[in-house]
Automatic annotation (TrEMBL):
This is Calcineurin-like phosphoesterase domain-containing protein. Residues 1-16 form the signal peptide. PANTHER family: METALLOPHOSPHOESTERASE DOMAIN-CONTAINING PROTEIN, PHOSPHATASE DCR2-RELATED-RELATED. It comes from Elasticomyces elasticus. Residues 47-311 form the Calcineurin-like phosphoesterase domain. The keyword Amino-acid biosynthesis does not apply. One of its GO terms (molecular function) is hydrolase activity, acting on ester bonds. One of its GO terms (cellular component) is cytoplasm.
Length: 419
């Protein structure tokens, strides 16, 4: 019965609306599918920050060690069927115009070696003066296992906005789970400067046009198939709801296990922007992510949203109420961080990857199993995102630190040549 329910949640061909046009040669790939045991598991790698200080000896060593983290995780999690690269693939500030995206080839190597496919969201460090999100997408699609797409093409929409269906174990052609990917943008505009010669900041939230696309696409799917479809969402920068949960309610180490070290400095969408649209560091928060939060909480079936960006946070919080100071009410959506994967970027928390497991039986109850697989081989923070999450008690997550074992940071030099 549960398999039948899964198989009937979604039927028919993909939409033909202009909003569904996508970039990338991904149609040759077989569809994502639950295993014969009725399971679907994915690994999230985030904040990889490849290409950092590539001119110093320690820069390439960071990337070599980041690859090892990915390999260790994938070898430990042999049930992984799919990988999400959840933003900040490259430290774009350190990229040169002529070869800014070449690091993508190194990033995707562990997946190619294991026959795994992947899909990406892009982060704020993936948009810099010499680094274009569009060029990252093109570089990804030089490899056959890329599923990253672009389904929204507005001038301020970003790039990595799309969805992927996951099909049932019985071989049916009607998907029963959707994976939504959103572009929270940020960084600076590619090859643009203002009149004074300074780089121009790019808004760091999911654009209104993308929230509109999310509503419209879901509406069409729901109308066509006469039911809502369980789904998971991925976006690099978290929304204001995560900040408010942390600051106004609090994160309990046993009820929301995970590292909570980016406190009180958790970075969010629309940070450093004013309500009138000005990019000003004196403005703490401009509220431009409200339309996206409204979409996440009012579109039926969204079980969890997974973010990165804040390297020192790894918890999940069930947003099931109106939090203090907010005007968007939670509906039980789980707000989750992953684990800093790369040896680039700030912080020395142990590297790893959030694992997400859904079964066909769990879909009927909108439940998710999730944990962090560390480079050490340990699994920590294992929780069930179910009806009682937030009440159930779990072991606290140890706050372990590691340093790049082959990096000599005694020599740090400025970026040579023309930026």
């Amino acid at each position: 019965m549960l398999l039948f329910l899964c198989a009937t949640l979604f039927a028919g061909p993909v939409l033909t609306s202009p909003l569904r046009r996508s970039y990338g040669n991904h149609t040759h790939l077989p569809p994502l599918r639950f295993t014969s045991n009725g399971t679907f598991q994915l690994s999230i790698f985030e904040d990889l920050h490849f290409g950092e200080n590539a001119w110093d000896p320690w820069g390439p060593q960071q990337d070599i060690n980041s690859v090892k983290v990915m390999e260790q995780v994938l070898d430990a999690e042999k049930r992984t069927q799919f990988v999400v690269l959840n933003g900040d693939l490259i430290t774009g500030e350190n990229a040169y115009f002529d070869n800014a995206t070449v690091k993508i080839d190194q990033i995707v190597g562990p997946m190619l070696d294991r026959g795994l496919t992947w899909a990406s969201t892009y982060g704020n460090h993936d948009s810099q003066y010499n680094l274009s999100r569009h060029d990252i997408l093109k570089r990804e699609h030089q490899w056959p296992n890329a599923r990253t797409q672009q389904m929204v093409h507005g001038p301020e929409s970003g790039v990595s906005n799309y969805y992927l269906p996951v099909y049932p174990s019985d071989g049916g052609s009607e998907p029963c789970l959707l994976l939504w990917f959103f572009d929270s943008r940020g960084g600076v505009y590619y090859q643009q400067k203002n009149a004074s010669g300074a780089h121009i900041g790019q808004p760091d939230w999911v654009d209104q046009s993308v929230a509109d696309w999310f509503y419209e696409t879901n509406k069409q799917l729901t109308h066509k198939h006469r039911r809502s479809i369980p789904s998971l969402a991925f976006v690099h920068i978290p929304t204001n709801a995560s900040v408010t949960a942390q600051m106004q309610v609090g994160i309990d180490e046993n009820r929301q296990p995970g590292i909570n070290d980016d406190y009180p400095d958790l970075a969010q969408q629309a940070q450093g922007w004013c309500e009138d649209g000005r990019n000003d560091p004196d403005c703490v928060y401009g509220s431009q992510d409200v339309p996206f939060m409204q979409a996440l909480t009012t579109i039926p079936g969204v079980m969890a949203v997974f973010s990165g960006h804040d390297h020192g946070d790894t918890w999940c919080y069930k947003w099931d109420s109106l939090l203090p100071g907010m005007n968007v009410k939670g509906n039980g959506l789980n707000l989750c961080f992953g684990q800093h994967t790369g040896y680039g970027g700030y912080g020395n928390w142990i590297r790893g990857s959030r694992q997400v497991l859904v079964t066909e039986a769990m879909l009927a109850h909108h439940e998710i199993e999730t944990w962090i697989r560390l480079e050490s081989g340990d699994a920590v923070g294992r929780v069930s995102l179910n009806a009682t999450y937030g009440e159930d008690v779990y072991p606290a997550t140890p706050n372990t630190k590691t340093d790049c074992p082959t990096c000599n940071y005694t020599i740090i030099t400025d970026m040579p040549g023309t930026k």
